[in-house]
Amino acid sequence: QCEALVFLGRMMGMSMRSSTFLPLRLAPAVWKQIVGQNVTRDDILGVDLLSFNMTEAMTESPDRSQFDMTFDQTFTGVTADQRLCPLVPYGERIKVTYGRRNTYSSLLREFRNHEFREQVDLIRKGMVDVVPNPALMLFDGPELEKAVCGVNSVDIALLKRHTVYQGRYSESHQVIQYFWEVRV
Known about the structure:
One of its GO terms (molecular function) is ubiquitin-protein transferase activity. Keywords: Ubl conjugation pathway. InterPro entries: HECT_dom (IPR000569), Hect_E3_ubiquitin_ligase (IPR035983), HECTD3 (IPR042469). This is HECT domain-containing protein. The protein is mainly alpha-helical. The chain folds into three domains: about 1-40 and about 115-150, Alpha-Beta Complex (Hect, E3 ligase catalytic domain fold), CATH 3.90.1750; about 45-115, Hect, E3 ligase catalytic domain (2-Layer Sandwich); about 155-184, no CATH class. It has eleven helices and two strands, in the order αααααββαααααα. Strands 1-2 form a two-stranded antiparallel ribbon. Helix 1 (about 1-20) packs across helix 7 (about 115-130) and helix 4 (about 50-60) packs antiparallel against helix 6. The two termini are about 40 Å apart. The relative contact order is 0.17.
């Protein structure tokens, strides 16, 4: 896996240098981490809404009895590949209590911020083989994504002109009209 990620980074660097864009779909947090930007609360929301909502509900829980009835959580997080990961030593054995709910929330967010650090570092290593690190650091996350992937847009007018309808559907069919309204 390590060699593949370094290779991916080299390909990303080559795409930047040659303007031959790659069709990659990476989370905004990944692009930001490649260039050393801090990951924001919104970036985490985009990756793990469920955990984020749970920690928000925990920290906003009004009292101990409601918290105890609602939450049965240990000091663990679930990785992207669904493995349970302790956030503290023996975290799988330590119950999150009302008094430690803010600590758990902070640890889980920190875990999310750094979950892909090794992979991101390997991608960056490959990129700096092709694009010098000082040049790479001139980009922010969205700019890097644009440099590697190009502009992510679809020409709706072009798509509409070349769409072929079949069966009972035609350009004037109500469902098709709704479809194009939503797209525009």
